[in-house]
Design brief:
alpha/beta; Rossmann fold; 2 domains; 5-stranded parallel beta sheet; 10% strand
């Protein structure tokens, strides 16, 4: 005949309570020493399973979001980047901008923490049970460009329109071709006032014409992004350069150039908006911004 412990293991396995099953003997031993009430023991037993399932859920959501790494706000060195207003970051951490379908744009030279803060916001959104997707601007253009050539752009576009939060990293590191520019415009238009975009760029707004190869479409994109948005302009030194300097690997002149490499915040006057359907041509996109 099976012992009570064996029957408990069988029952827990049947119910799929894997976390409780794995810790059963330990939990029973602790209970024998503390002699909790039946309710307290049951509460601890079930809480063990709840926490395990929450951890598995978070791990799965983080994987689905394609975050490049896990970063938190606590890990960010605000003292190293004094140009950042911590009160503004605290407001963003409330995630109210997501409920308002507003955007967050981080501008600054490489290595100042733009992606770190973007990922931290994305992770906070995931922990609040919001859908998140992370991708670089280059990979986004490549993926949607391939889908366009294969005749499945509409279906693939839904991957980037559906999440509550879309993180587009490294806008401006590589210029986009005509197709990539038009598709990027379509995506921003499709998400306009429907879902939040968190975007990082090493270019000031005045330089976005060079990113998209067309100042008219660049203005149309900025018009939609900036209508409901918060811009965080980070002027400072690269964290990576900081570590290299500590190790004595950075020449003095390079240090001076890095310290002076900052972005000025540019403003783009909003233009009248017109709805643009997916599949519009580059010329139609230009007309929509006029």
């Amino acid at each position: 005949m099976n012992t009570p412990i064996e029957r408990l293991h069988t029952a827990l396995e049947t119910l799929g309570l894997k976390a409780v099953e794995a810790r059963l003997e330990n939990l029973l031993e602790q209970a024998s020493k503390k002699e909790p009430s039946y309710a307290d023991f049951l509460d601890e037993l079930l809480n063990c399973e709840v926490e395990a399932r929450r951890t598995r859920y978070m791990r799965a959501k983080l994987q689905l979001a394609h975050l490049p790494f896990v970063k938190t706000f606590e890990q960010f060195d605000f003292g190293f980047q004094p140009s950042i207003d911590e009160r503004q970051i605290r407001e963003l951490r409330s995630l109210r901008f997501i409920h308002e379908a507003s955007n967050v744009i981080f501008l600054g030279p490489p290595g100042v923490g733009k992606t770190h803060l973007s990922v931290a916001l994305a992770e906070a959104a995931i922990r609040s049970a919001m859908g998140v997707y992370f991708i670089t601007a280059h990979d986004l253009a490549t993926d949607l460009g391939r889908a366009y050539r294969e005749g499945r752009l509409d279906r693939r576009m839904r991957i980037y329109v559906a999440p509550k939060v879309l993180v587009i990293d490294e806008v401006g590191y590589l210029p986009l071709d005509d197709l990539g520019t038009t598709i990027f415009f379509q995506l921003v238009s499709a998400r306009y006032e429907r879902g939040s975009i968190i975007l990082t760029s090493n270019k000031s707004y005045g330089d976005w014409g060079s990113i998209f190869g067309d100042s008219i479409i660049a203005t149309a994109i900025l018009d939609r992004l900036l209508h409901h948005s918060t811009t965080i302009n980070i002027r400072g030194e690269s964290y990576r350069l900081k570590e290299r300097r500590k190790a004595g690997l950075v020449p003095a002149r390079e240090q001076e150039r890095a310290a002076s490499n900052s972005l000025a915040s540019d403003s783009v006057p909003p233009k009248t908006r017109q709805k643009t359907a997916l599949g519009s041509t580059a010329s139609e996109a230009k007309e929509a911004s006029l």
